[in-house]
Write a structure and sequence with these properties.
- The structure is a single chain.
- Helix content is 30%, strand content 26%.
- It is α/β, with parallel strands linked by helices.
- It has a single domain, classed as Alpha-Beta Complex (DHBP synthase), CATH 3.90.870.10.
- The strands form two sheets. It has a twelve-stranded mixed β-sheet with strand order 1-9-2-3-7-4-6-5-11-12-14-13, with helices on both faces.
- The longest helix is centred in the first third of the chain and has 12 residues.
Length: 222
């Protein structure tokens, strides 16, 4: 496993090239994000996805990994994004959200997965944006397991997962794991399946969106 300390301003091209080589060879990355450390692999390779699942066995087998997409153009190749969904996603683009969307007809072939919905995350961080744009296809991701409490440094991850990870891209800063807000856009109305930070709740209200608790502790559009 390689542990690479890198930068975001400016991005270090040789580090991005090394990470893309890992993805191309069905390896697994550990990446820093605003919601905490995440594991990622090439979404098009089932062997890589198996390695990703081994890193987080508690990830439900019935739930596909989220797709880290560079932008809406990339996301639309794998998910149906209608006008209403696009507007909502744009309004919430400053937060860290996972959006469940209907899969496109050719998505199962691309992802080797027959499920009818996909989870999409569009990053705002320069490192993740640069990596996904240059890789030119989605990265399958899952959040870091709850192994440590509080903020976590990259070297702590290396101590536990060195034998199963291929590379850690590290900005040299500790990161606190936080749950993302999951918004389901597959139905007739948006539904919040999981609420993340209170800052995200504030963002929802600032956009003039009213939400109420539905049965099963889900939140739906009012």
């Amino acid at each position: 496993m390689s542990h690479v300390y890198t930068y975001e301003n400016p991005l270090v091209q040789k580090h991005l090239d090394a990470a893309i080589e890992v993805l191309d060879n069905q390896g697994v990355l550990c990446l820093p994000s605003s919601s905490g450390w995440i594991f990622g692999c090439d979404s098009a390779h089932s062997k890589a996805a198996t390695r990703l699942r081994e890193l987080k066995p508690e990830h439900p087998k019935t739930q596909p990994f989220s797709l880290l997409c560079a932008d809406f153009g990339m996301a639309s190749q794998y998910a149906h994004i209608d006008n209403a969904s696009y507007r909502l996603m744009k309004k919430l683009s400053n937060g860290w959200y996972t959006f469940f969307l209907p899969a496109t007809l050719d998505s199962p072939k691309k992802l080797k997965d027959k499920r009818k919905r996909v989870g999409v995350r569009i990053p705002q961080q320069p490192l993740l944006c640069g990596l996904t744009r240059q890789f030119a296809r989605p990265i399958a991701i899952t959040s870091f397991p709850a192994v440590f409490e509080g903020e976590v440094f990259g070297y702590q991850i290396a101590e536990v997962y060195a034998h199963r990870l291929t590379m850690i891209l590290d900005l040299g800063e500790p990161i606190r794991t936080q749950e993302t807000t999951i918004v389901d856009l597959t139905g007739s109305q948006p539904c919040v399946l999981r609420l993340g930070t209170q800052a995200e709740l504030s963002s929802l209200k600032e956009q003039g969106l009213e939400w109420h608790v539905d049965e099963g502790d889900h939140w739906s559009h009012d």
